């Protein structure tokens, strides 16, 4: 269950910066909706406390650093969560190109260290699964995702064998050729307890490449309750 939650958190942060992608060739960069020759992206998630909106990354609770090759394929991800009482870190290394992708992930949760390897299995051009690739992994954990025609994620289902634990659904509000808002509906199945969580993710500022640099995450559809602020820092390949 801890692995499900970790990947679930990654997805939340991942889709929060989805932009508009008109490229016909799939890559993780196109799935992220990023523009330009992105080399590295660092995301800082900062909570809003006592109605005080963070203006810098000093008190972040999550930091995610992703690197890309020139074709837009993931190379590495380093995910650090300072969620009391534990600090959790995930180190992921990717292999392959385009849709032929695998990755190895190491998770560090306190004194617990675990490794796992996974692969993408494509069912059609816009529908794939992420499944364990090592025969020793008996968790039965699977992520199943659907993409829109621009390769943005519109639905992801997290399963433990035949049991659906989490379902994420996304709708995108596009203005000026950019995704200005993402409406996120999350359905959580904890056995006896089932919850629905709604969020609105709003891009406030963009860099010269059209990638969001400041994102507000609201915990209510009316955007009256600001929950987190995300700061995005980009590095680009030189042409």
Describe the structure.
The chain is mostly beta strands. The chain has two helices and 14 strands; from the N terminus they run ααββββββββββββββ. A 14-stranded antiparallel beta barrel has the order 1-2-3-4-5-6-7-8-9-10-11-12-13-14. β9 and β10 (163-175) form a beta hairpin. The radius of gyration is 17 Å and the shape is globular.
Q: What's the count of strands?
A: 14
Low-confidence stretches: 1-5, 12-16
Structural class: mainly beta
Amount of helix: under 10%
Strand arrangement across the biggest beta sheet: 1-2-3-4-5-6-7-8-9-10-11-12-13-14
* Arithmetic mean of pLDDT: 87
Biggest sheet descriptor: 14 strands, antiparallel, barrel
Features:
239 residues, mainly beta, 14-stranded antiparallel barrel, 2 helices, 14 strands, globular
Brief overview, please?
The chain is mostly beta strands and 239 residues long.
Question: Topology of this protein?
Answer:
Blueprint (H helix, E strand, L loop, with lengths): L1 H14 L12 H5 L5 E10 L14 E7 L5 E10 L2 E12 L2 E10 L2 E13 L2 E6 L8 E7 L5 E8 L2 E13 L2 E13 L2 E14 L5 E7 L7 E11 L3
Antiparallel strand pairs: 1-2, 1-14, 2-3, 3-4, 4-5, 5-6, 6-7, 7-8, 8-9, 9-10, 10-11, 11-12, 12-13, 13-14
